[in-house]
Amino acid sequence: MTARSSSAFNEATEVPEVVVERLPQYVRALTRLSQQGVAVVSSQQLGDLIQVTPAQIRKDLSYFGRFGKQGRGYSVKYLLGELRRILGLDREWRVGLIGVGRLGRAILSYPGFAPEGFKIVAAFDADPRQVGQMVAGIMVQPMHRLGEAVHELGIGIAIVAVPASQVQEVVDQLVACDVRAIVNYAPVTAQVPSLVRVRNIDPVMALQSMTYYLTTPQGSTRTGGK
Amino acid sequence: MTARSSSAFNEATEVPEVVVERLPQYVRALTRLSQQGVAVVSSQQLGDLIQVTPAQIRKDLSYFGRFGKQGRGYSVKYLLGELRRILGLDREWRVGLIGVGRLGRAILSYPGFAPEGFKIVAAFDADPRQVGQMVAGIMVQPMHRLGEAVHELGIGIAIVAVPASQVQEVVDQLVACDVRAIVNYAPVTAQVPSLVRVRNIDPVMALQSMTYYLTTPQGSTRTGGK
């Protein structure tokens, strides 16, 4: 999976991917605390925010170093800064969008990416009718421009918003252009080499976390515990 | 990970929403164990699978009752069955899809919902050109049929795949029809009453969990370790 090689970290430790996937939640909670002017947070308090035990928080963070002194809590600003640095969120990432259909257009217009450091700098579509159009200030380019644009613009991440039937082909093209991080919106799983990360939007998990509320009368309590 | 809830915590219910949101991960891990023929799992082993401490697992599960005997582990089959029952996954859910554009069509054709108990039984679109078309065996209906169809077909959940600009209007219509669980694919947040759950597809969190790998040398490219 991955290994830190900086001397600040334990070189032998591979960080499990599920731990990496949790860190953005920590960043979100710490950002909120920081905005509220909170200077120091205990693992208990941080855990309450994201409903994780203090031990879990300490274990997750231990993969990356030591961030607090026993019994004194974490400096919100320092921990947030370190986690952002570790996750690579302290810089701007240039993102390419593939597929400028309805969803792609909504993604291009979404105001939530740029403040988080993800700047969509190029858009591509296989449909000649889309090519040349301006969408949210970006001109749609043909797919054959992908490789050149990725290298010229320093695109490190792609968002794929093409129909399911086209996903594997598009992902293959991205991989061939050295793009190693892909968010895929279509409900299919693409095959990629092990060095490439794909995050599929997973609607089943989203559905599975809501049926609880349809099953459990609101305000009623435990459903198990005898 | 890919979906975020509209509120982190609902005070009306005893179980924190973030705990409910984690349970599908438990279900997925237990399903895998069950398929492998594993009969009993300790909280340590289960925790290893999803990289959660044993204490966290015990705490999460304690909201719902007692599922194992101290020192004897959990019966995989029993715990899986109970969690599926608690989450309401032991029945079929009828799902309505709103928006039959490119994304909506991909969702209708996705083979991953039905095996998990989510059956898309109706599709709706505001565009008269879509209405009457058959997509993946389902005839697209006009939006004014929504209320009737929801009640006739027992639709409890909606998947919204409309352009961002139409999301709030569609969500309002769904809420008016008593749909209380909505997955929204567009990158905007809809306002809903507190009894309604919305899971937004959250591309920022997905992006934030990948930049780690772009920042950190890994695998064969791991040349930085001195």
Description:
The structure is a homodimer of 226-residue chains. The first copy, chain A, has 226 residues and is an alpha/beta fold. The first copy, chain A, folds into 2 domains: 70 residues, Orthogonal Bundle (Arc Repressor Mutant, subunit A); 114 residues, NAD(P)-binding Rossmann-like Domain (Rossmann fold, 3-Layer(aba) Sandwich). Chain A is built from 9 helices and 10 strands. In chain A, the strands form 2 sheets. Chain A has a 7-stranded mixed sheet. A 3-stranded antiparallel sheet of chain A has the order 1-3-2. The interface between A and B is large, with 89 and 94 residues.
Any key phrases for this structure?
homodimer, 226 residues, alpha/beta, Arc Repressor Mutant, subunit A, Rossmann fold, seven-stranded mixed sheet, three-stranded antiparallel sheet
**Percent in strands of chain A:** 15-25%
Estimate nothing, just give the exact number of structural domains of chain A: 2
CATH hierarchy class name of the largest domain in chain A:
Alpha Beta
The oligomerization state is homodimer
What share of the residues of chain A lie within helices? 25-40%
Task: Compute the separation of the termini of chain A in Å.
Answer: 42 Å
Element-by-element helix/strand order of chain A: HEHHEEHEHEEEHEHEEHH
CATH architecture of the largest domain in chain A: 3-Layer(aba) Sandwich
- The neighbouring-strand order within the major sheet of chain A is 6-7-5-4-8-9-10
Helix vs. strand class of chain A: alpha/beta
CATH topology of the largest domain in chain A: Rossmann fold
Largest sheet of chain A: 7 strands, mixed
CATH superfamily of the largest domain in chain A: NAD(P)-binding Rossmann-like Domain
* Secondary structure tally: strands of chain A: 10
